[in-house]
Design brief:
2 copies of one chain form a homodimer. Chain A is of the alpha/beta class. Helix content of chain A is about 40%, strand content about 25%. Chain A has helices spanning about 5-10, 15-20, 30-45, 50-55, 75-90, 105-115, 160-170, 185-200, 225-235, 250-260, 280-285, 295-310, and strands at about 60-65, 90-100, 120-130, 140-145, 150-155, 175-180, 210-215, 215-220, 220-225, 245, 270-275, 290-295, 320, 325. Chain A starts with a helix and ends in a 10-residue tail after the last strand.
Chain lengths: ~325, ~325
DNA sequence: ATGAAAGCGCTAACAT
DNA sequence: ATGTTAGCGCTTTCAT
């Protein structure tokens, strides 16, 4: 690949003038600029990023450490949002899939240090608290937070998400909700339980005994046990039997569709289902389509990247982003 | 961050000796090496990749252009496979999500040129033929191929996959298969239809009129129409009615589960279903679990990266990788 | 508006 | 086994 020197020779100018044209410095004669730009286009020159980094002492590289994120389809939007934002700002995002605490984490860290990354975004699959080893590179946490609050974090407003989801449910006239929650070890689980409980209270409904954990973990392997919970609940007399099932995530909701079908119940007619995620393409392909509270992953990714670029060393703050309710047929008005 | 010069000063050696230690050159006195290594560990030195690139004229960067890949959960394994392989070989993979023919493609290309990437892997969501603009960087195609055969390509052996899937189906005793295929514009669709037809013929079964397109595209939006096809087929008399439905992909299979349920049929009891993908977590969460032919995405990603590293400029060849059958309850032996 | 010189941090090539 | 020198391609600094 040609260098600026070669262009300068061809154009009969100095190196510096070429550099000015490339860096859009306005202090260049228009005719000179045009001549140089023509040569650049002709020989297909691209500036050498390594040389630029070295001399300017700015890498324009932002690292993105994805703890299992890229294996989970919904959280890919975290990556897309971050990359789009990086691009808009002329930054280069370097993505690494890592496993928590594993050697892949250290390897990624040293690669990023080698590239003199200006900041690193650390993203997790689930909203959780993390404890990270010290690092010389400023870090933004995405979908997770530092228990000691020392890092800027971008997380979903799980409490608010749950509250507004519950508000929709009650506004439609449902009065006997059940919340099938994720494992209590997950931060979002507690926040959502609170959000739903508070919204319910305002409608005179007590969520105590209406919240069940529908997930079991054994040996690190996760299984849904919604079938057990539901077969018990749906046997209750009609006036106490649930009229709507709120699920902690879309794949749990999918499981619930099948469980209800086993019990001879049809979603959208006999019972309503809502959830959290808007997982593509499951939520839209379930029949009937699943009404669900979309998590703001794309916006979270964008926000984290903006923080990483604009104030990597800024004071630690926590951004909680709101969701968006996606209305599909699984939450028709109740028949009873 | 400290430089090699600083280390050299502290160790009382020349710059070059430090460089030798860092690059594992054996021609260094053990005691000198240890002294220098101690200093490196103490000050947490990491070599400057930009300087290294510049001097050595080797970037160790391999680009990965993902055409919509990272939005589709199964094809993420393409990325994981490639990244793992890159890492093992001490290469840095730079990932870009792009849209085909869009400005994002050009932007990614120029970024990769700026980093002097040694090769670029171009990956697509679906197995397809592509026509790419000229590029100065050697390119490996992943999950797609150049119609003129000018590039090395790594693709799934869709014909073979379909044949072995069909062999399992017939070995289990099914005799009245239907293949609900993807859009005929997809390369895999034709290959699979051939594979299944050839396998069927060996069992004395004629697949003509047993293959249906279950997908409709209008205005770029894809919908499944398996419900229409199935409601017609399942009305046939018992001796010609399908006993197994082969689906072109797992999400279509999911759609089929719901359609069959509407028709009062239970998968695994009244009718069998098999598919292609092994899409996580859908395939395992369907009830009963979906028997499916897993696509070798992880291995394909690895293979493409190995080609990119070892013979980026090598003669164009096409690697067709085999799949693996995942056996779950949706393909129990037929009841009739 | 343009240019000359220096040097970022590293390694290739060539001593010693 | 170790050191010296040069220079990769660019931008910063300082002149003109």
């Amino acid at each position: 690949m040609a260098s600026q020197r070669e262009i300068a020779e061809r154009a009969g100018t100095s190196l510096k003038t070429v550099s000015r044209v490339i860096n859009r410095d306005p202090l260049v004669n228009t005719r000179t600029r045009e001549r140089i730009e023509a040569i650049i286009a002709q020989i297909g020159y691209e500036p050498n990023q390594a040389a630029r980094m070295m001399r300017s002492q700015r890498s324009d590289v932002i690292g993105f450490l994805a703890e299992g994120v890229a294996t989970t389809s919904s959280s890919i939007d975290l990556i897309r949002g971050a990359q789009d934002a990086a691009w808009e700002r002329g930054k280069q995002m370097m993505l690494f899939n890592i496993e928590q605490g594993a050697s892949s984490h250290r390897l990624a860290d040293s690669q990023l240090t080698a590239f003199r990354a200006e900041a690193v975004i650390y993203a997790t699959r689930y909203h959780q608290a993390v404890k990270l080893p010290q690092s010389s590179v400023p870090r933004i946490l995405l979908n997770c937070f530092d228990a000691e609050g020392r890092h800027t974090a971008v997380i979903p407003d799980d409490y608010g998400l749950a509250r507004s989801l519950a508000d929709v449910v009650f506004a439609r006239g449902y009065r006997r909700p059940v919340f099938l929650n994720l494992s209590e070890t997950i931060v979002a689980a507690g926040l959502r339980a609170s959000g739903i409980s508070d919204a319910a209270r305002e409608h005179g409904i007590d969520m105590t005994r209406r919240i069940h954990t529908a997930v079991e973990e054994r040996e690190g392997h996760v299984t849904f046990v919604a079938d057990r919970v539901l077969s018990r609940l749906m046997q209750e007399p009609e006036d106490t039997r649930p009229d709507v099932i709120i699920c902690g995530q879309d794949i749990l909701a999918m499981d619930v569709y099948f469980d209800l079908s086993e019990l001879g119940l049809k979603v959208g007619r006999d019972i309503a289902v809502v959830s959290f995620d808007n997982l593509d393409p499951i939520a839209s392909l379930l029949k009937p389509g699943l009404s669900t509270m979309e998590l703001p992953y794309y916006e979270m990714g964008r926000a984290a990247m903006m923080m990483a670029i604009d104030s990597p060393e800024g004071p630690a703050e926590t951004l909680r982003l709101p969701g968006r309710f996606i209305d599909r047929a699984s939450l028709n008005a109740p028949s009873t």
